[in-house]
Amino acid sequence: MSQRRLTVLVLAALAPLGACTDGYGTNGDNLGVPADLSYQLIPSGDPAVPDGIMLRWTEPADDRVSDYVIFSRGSVNASWERRGATTSSTFHDAGVPHLQYYVASEDGDGNESRGSNVITVDERNRLPAPSSIVSVSLDQAVQLSWPSNGRVADPGMFDYYRIYSTLYNLDTGICDDLRWSLEGTTVSEDFLVTGLPNGVPRCFAASTVSRDGHESAWSGARADTPRYDARNTFVDAFQAAPATSGFRFYDGTSRTFGLVTTGSRTDVDFRIEKRADGSLWFTPVRSDVKIALYSTSTVTDLTSIDVAPLRSAFSATAIEAVPGYAYVFEMSLADGLHYGAIRVTHTGVDYVIFDWAYQSDPGNPELRRERGSVAGGV
Question: What's the pTM value of the predicted model, to 2 decimals?
């Protein structure tokens, strides 16, 4: 991302700021003066190059005022320039703003009042960027969250966060710098990005915006890939109900995700089998399907299942289905390796209920990503 610099002089070098009297006005000393001039920058995504500045002021109670004239200058040593005029009590100055502004009233004869207070675009109001960002892969969505360091640095100056995204190249580990776009804004330290295509990796980043519109630098980029999922899938044991004992994460023939079908099919990913002691087991069926226990302890939710284990952890050996535990399947398809995750929520006498997720992006082990920043992008 381009990082052009906006030159702002150190405020210690500024002249004392009060009502401005050295503008272009003439014969308007008794004309009502605008008061309480304030500003708000318009963020652009580049902290050093805002899209513009919005000025606001309180209009004087003077019927002779026909419009307002805006003056600005790029440094404290430069001469004031007439920037524009408006009949309202606001003014939008597009592009990179000047350092200082003031406003004067004008009557129908062109007489100008004394100047309002002078505002200075103060870079010291810029807040810190979120120190990190984490994500949870969801079905056609990604949940983002970050620490509150930007807000708590100056709660009275904090306004909101901006969230950005772009495409991510999984093979090179680089964000596409040419396609960053704004996803939205929020006042909380979390944001749900929806309407995303499953299996398409994206990068995400967030910035902090102050009440006067100064945007921070961006957080480090976070890569995540939405994936298909579902809750409370019911699959019977093969010995009790063969017709509903098989499961396939993705069935290419019917183009169905999370297909529950007969366990006698040779093309299912696994079926549930009941052993003589009453225990229920995930049994891989296709020769190119392997399974691994995700962790040696229970997980709280399907979204707790992170990146797939190393390939050496997978085998074709059946694993017992135990409530609260998570399992990851590795499947070799025509377009490459795919991964699926399961968290068992309940086991009955002859059935298993589980939540599942499937990563449709080939070769992508990401079932929920919460890792370090990726290369490129910010």
Answer: 0.78
